[in-house]
Specification:
The protein has 116 residues and is mainly β. Helices cover 0% and strands 57% of the residues. Strands 2, 4, 5, 6, 9, 10 and 11 form a 7-stranded mixed β-sheet that branches. A 4-stranded antiparallel β-sheet has the order 1-3-8-7, with no helix packed on it.
Length: 116
């Protein structure tokens, strides 16, 4: 089992920045990729950005290109999402994800609200 706990969400004005964090514990060695997803009100959960534990950035959504950056600290089992130039469309619950070959693990999510 892998446990994920997100933090860092909040209310910010358009153009502002937030840094989300995800603390991973448990059998993290069983996971291959880490990433962030988000779900806006009335919409399906969508992919944001992903990398593997070697730090290789695998992919990111076009909507966040040039604005969001994923990073990690392996010594602390932490994953971060730096979000700059935030837009009202970025308003959503943001979820940390850890993927093993057979299982996806999710955190409880952290709310990000961007006001115009």
């Amino acid at each position: 089992q892998v446990q994920l706990v997100e933090a860092g969400g909040g209310l910010v004005q358009a153009g502002g920045s937030l840094r989300l964090s995800c603390s991973a514990s448990g059998r993290t060695s069983s996971t291959r990729d880490m990433g962030w997803y988000r779900q806006a009100p009335g919409k399906e959960r969508e992919f944001v950005e992903q990398f593997n534990w070697s730090g290789i950035r695998l992919r990111y959504a076009d909507a966040v290109k040039g604005r969001f950056t994923i990073s990690r600290d392996n010594t602390k089992n932490m994953v971060y999402l730096q979000m700059n130039s935030l837009k009202p469309d970025d308003t959503a619950i943001y979820y940390c994800n850890a993927a093993s070959p057979s299982t996806d693990y999710w955190g409880q999510g952290t709310q990000v609200t961007v006001s115009s």
